């Protein structure tokens, strides 16, 4: 009988399950801090199911840049259709004029907003399907340099490395 009274007395004195709540709050605080710290690591490149990006060993994360996307059929600049891959192949010149026009328009926007006035710092990222012919890639790269972009990068999927 005395043990029952002692238990009741301790429950009244310590507030019942108050102590079980404190570790839970601590755990939730740590979880929130962890999630806030790791949400800044996001991909900058658009995600698309239309292209299969080649794999490579790359240590550098992509930075904010104009994205030229080459699907199996079409060519886009920051999501806006510029032309078809057939048009790029059929074009006889060393560069593709509609792509150059779209890239120069992107330059004008960045100059008016006060960003990237130096040609060497202007950056473009090419996201191409791994089955894209090299002649098309070469023409697109030449067009990017003709449109005054100093840095031309290719988007790749990081291949897993073997443990050393």
Account of the 3D structure:
This protein is an alpha/beta fold. The protein has 2 domains: 2-38; 55-158, Nucleotidyltransferase, domain 5 (2-Layer Sandwich), CATH 3.30.420. It contains 5 helices and 7 strands. It has a 5-stranded mixed sheet with strand order 4-3-2-5-6. A hairpin with a 2-residue loop joins strand 3 and strand 4 (80-84). Helix 4 runs parallel beside helix 5. The longest helix has 21 residues, at 18-38. The chain starts with a helix and ends in a 6-residue tail after the last strand.
Shape: elongated
Radius of gyration of CA atoms, rounded to a whole number: 28 Å
Q: Tally of extended strands?
A: 7
Measured between the Cα atoms of the first and last residue, the distance is 67 Å
Helical stretch tally: 5
Write down the overall mean pLDDT.
Answer: 75
Reading side by side through the largest sheet, how are the strands ordered? 4-3-2-5-6
Tell me what the CATH architecture of the largest domain is. Answer: 2-Layer Sandwich
Which segments are poorly predicted (pLDDT under 50) over 5 or more consecutive residues?
none
Supply the helix-strand structural class: alpha/beta
Give keywords:
single chain; 164 residues; alpha/beta; Nucleotidyltransferase, domain 5; 2 domains; five-stranded mixed β-sheet; two-stranded parallel sheet; 5 helices; 7 strands; 42% helix; elongated
Could you give a short description of this structure?
The protein has helices at 2-14, 18-38, 85-90, 97-112, 134-146, and strands at 55-56, 66-70, 74-77, 80-84, 123-128, 151-154, 157-158. By secondary structure, the protein is of the alpha/beta class. It folds into 2 domains: 2-38; 55-158, 2-Layer Sandwich (Nucleotidyltransferase, domain 5), CATH 3.30.420.
């Amino acid at each position: 009988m005395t043990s029952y009274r002692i238990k009741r007395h301790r429950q009244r004195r310590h507030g019942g399950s108050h102590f079980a709540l404190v570790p839970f709050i601590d755990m939730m605080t740590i979880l929130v801090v962890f999630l806030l710290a790791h949400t800044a690591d996001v991909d900058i490149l658009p995600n698309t199911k239309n292209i299969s990006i080649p794999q490579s060993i790359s240590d550098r994360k992509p930075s904010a840049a104009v994205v030229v996307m080459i699907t199996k059929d079409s060519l886009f600049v920051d999501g806006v259709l510029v032309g078809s891959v057939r048009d790029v192949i059929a074009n006889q010149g060393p560069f593709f004029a509609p792509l150059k026009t779209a890239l120069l328009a992107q330059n004008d926007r960045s100059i008016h907003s006060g960003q990237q006035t130096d040609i060497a710092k202007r950056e473009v990222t090419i996201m191409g399907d791994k089955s894209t012919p090299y002649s098309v890639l070469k023409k697109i790269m030449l067009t990017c340099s003709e449109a005054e972009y100093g840095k031309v990068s290719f988007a790749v999927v990081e291949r897993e490395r073997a443990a050393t």
